[in-house]
């Protein structure tokens, strides 16, 4: 659970940052922030989580990160005592992996790492289609999503994209798959024609993964958030 469960908004004060503690600026329902939480969970790294209201952003957070996006990682450097901050889900995730040697998630082979990065970068085709379904053109979005999913069905040659166990790529792709279940009303049904059998098996394996289970957002709350998001009125805190 976040240290400050309520999403902080404008007019709030930044909670004091402690030494020897990683802080993750997040939003409970954000798939990009979920990427960073998955990596932290997979590597068993303790951290403090501060949730940010992405519609009414705190002034102090905009000073740290002008775009106001999450995730953001912050800590006090042990030697210089300087406060350091880095944004962006891929950058945060790579930094966490590179600075904590246990259970490395990125491949050590540069070629394999490059191939994984290509799939991660091209994943924008899936994320764009997902948001098109949610708020723009559902019919076209469903067509685009099904077409882009074929790329990942073909690329999957083992239980996980990382091989016999999840790697960085698996955690970077996962959050949107967790949200596909809420696209039914728009006409999308994952693997409806049975042609994504390898991806379907991957989904089952990921759902059983300890890190995925640990930080999974309750489906009922995620559904409520997405309903508000579709209407352009996202709600961040629920009683």
From TrEMBL:
Q: Does the keyword Transferase apply?
A: yes
Q: Name one GO molecular function term.
A: glutathione transferase activity
Q: Where are the transmembrane segments?
A: none
Give the record's GO CC terms.
cytoplasm
**Entry keyword set:** Oxidoreductase, Transferase
Q: Which InterPro entries match?
A: Glutathione-S-Trfase_C-like (IPR010987), Glutathione-S-Trfase_C_sf (IPR036282), Glutathione_S-Trfase (IPR040079), Glutathione_S-Trfase_N (IPR004045), GST_omega (IPR005442), GST_Omega/HSP26 (IPR050983), Thioredoxin-like_sf (IPR036249)
Q: Name one GO biological process term.
A: glutathione metabolic process
Q: Which segments constitute the GST C-terminal domain?
A: 109-236
Q: Which transformation does this protein catalyse, written as a reaction? A: methylarsonate + 2 glutathione + H(+) = methylarsonous acid + glutathione disulfide + H2O; L-dehydroascorbate + 2 glutathione = glutathione disulfide + L-ascorbate; RX + glutathione = an S-substituted glutathione + a halide anion + H(+)
- State a single Pfam family of this protein: GST_N_3
Keyword Oxidoreductase: yes or no?
Answer: yes
Give the EC number: 1.20.4.2, 1.8.5.1, 2.5.1.18
Q: Which residues form the GST N-terminal domain?
A: 20-104
Top-rank lineage group of the source organism? Eukaryota
What does it do?
Answer: Exhibits glutathione-dependent thiol transferase activity. Has high dehydroascorbate reductase activity and may contribute to the recycling of ascorbic acid. Participates in the biotransformation of inorganic arsenic and reduces monomethylarsonic acid (MMA).
* Family membership: Belongs to the GST superfamily. Omega family.
What protein am I looking at?
Glutathione S-transferase omega
Its organism's taxonomic lineage begins at:
Eukaryota, Metazoa, Spiralia, Gnathifera, Rotifera
């Amino acid at each position: 659970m976040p240290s400050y469960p309520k999403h902080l908004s404008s007019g709030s004060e930044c909670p004091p940052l402690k030494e020897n503690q990683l802080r993750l600026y997040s939003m409970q329902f954000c798939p990009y922030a979920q990427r960073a939480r998955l990596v932290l969970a997979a590597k068993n790294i303790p951290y403090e989580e501060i949730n940010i209201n992405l519609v009414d952003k705190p002034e102090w957070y905009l000073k740290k990160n002008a775009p106001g996006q999450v995730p953001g990682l912050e800590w006090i450097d042990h030697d210089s005592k300087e406060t350091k901050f880095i944004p962006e889900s891929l950058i945060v995730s790579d930094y966490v992996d590179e600075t904590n040697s246990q259970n490395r998630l990125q491949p050590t082979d540069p070629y394999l790492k490059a191939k994984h990065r290509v799939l991660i970068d091209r994943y924008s085709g899936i994320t764009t289609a997902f948001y098109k379904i949610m708020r723009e053109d559902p019919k076209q979005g469903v067509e685009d999503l099904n077409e882009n999913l074929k790329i990942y069905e073909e690329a999957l040659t083992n239980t996980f994209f990382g091989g016999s166990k999840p790697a960085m790529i698996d955690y970077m792709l996962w959050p949107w798959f967790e949200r596909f279940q809420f696209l039914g009303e728009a006409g999308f049904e994952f693997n409806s024609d049975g042609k994504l059998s390898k991806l379907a098996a991957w989904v089952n394996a990921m759902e059983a993964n300890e890190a995925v289970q640990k930080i999974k957002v309750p489906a009922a709350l995620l559904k409520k958030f997405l309903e508000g998001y579709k209407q352009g009125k996202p709600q961040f805190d629920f009683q």
